[in-house]
Amino acid sequence: MANEAQPCPCDIGHKIEYGGLGHEVQIEHIKAYVSQPPSNTDKAVIVVQDIFGWQMPNTRYVVDMIAANGYIAICPDFFVGKEPWHPSDDMSTFPEWLKTRDARDTDKEANVVLKYLKEKCHAQRIGIVGFCWGGIVVHDLMMKYPELKAGVSVYGIIKDSEDVYSLKNPTLFIFGENDFVIPLEQVTLLTQKLKEHCKVDYQIKIYPGQTHGFVHRQREDWNPKDKPYIEEARKDLINWLNKYI
């Protein structure tokens, strides 16, 4: 699932072969992948996994990319040891699988990670990025934690409710025009709600012709027409973090 608009598992796309430049750590009750920047910094970014878990190579590639741009980057296991979704799993079991992995109930894990970044990594300014399931987490946490100075929700959306616009700090929402998991009507509704009520900076950007997972689960060389949009979205993600963190 990418979002609460259509609860079905998304396609894993292109799972890349990537070992990672960071290392794994144990933080209280959860494990995490941490990647360090080229030089010391007090800025950090939490990266929230998609349904395929914190060990997904594609996600770790993004974690390392963010670190290379000057941030302590960390991808915690927000499933807390529970199995991620596997492409071979029976799709009919997905709703039950999802019930034990509520993207709007990650406060305990967020508190642990924030404490680790502040006390162990000496981070003073922290942002958050999430993909698919993690995009919902970002949207949810950006309405709860003022210490998260910037958020980037990548193809994740919360169903319409009275609190979808109560963002504490600037948030970028990235969507693909041809994302079958997230109907554009949901994006339009989110846009209207934020325009009417949001009191902080935000941006909703739809990338032409792109499908679900294009930012982190599609190889740049798969389709020459898509490559510019993949690169643009990644650049937009980094620029948003740079601007507000």
Automatic annotation (TrEMBL):
<feature type="domain" description="Dienelactone hydrolase">
    <location>
        <begin position="30"/>
        <end position="244"/>
    </location>
</feature>
<dbReference type="Pfam" id="PF01738">
    <property type="entry name" value="DLH"/>
</dbReference>
<protein>
    <recommendedName>
        <fullName>Carboxymethylenebutenolidase homolog</fullName>
    </recommendedName>
</protein>
<keyword id="KW-0378">Hydrolase</keyword>
<dbReference type="InterPro" id="IPR029058">
    <property type="entry name" value="AB_hydrolase_fold"/>
</dbReference>
<comment type="similarity">
    <text>Belongs to the dienelactone hydrolase family.</text>
</comment>
<dbReference type="GO" id="GO:0005829">
    <property type="term" value="C:cytosol"/>
</dbReference>
<dbReference type="InterPro" id="IPR002925">
    <property type="entry name" value="Dienelactn_hydro"/>
</dbReference>
<dbReference type="GO" id="GO:0016787">
    <property type="term" value="F:hydrolase activity"/>
</dbReference>
<keyword id="KW-0963">Cytoplasm</keyword>
<dbReference type="InterPro" id="IPR042946">
    <property type="entry name" value="CMBL"/>
</dbReference>
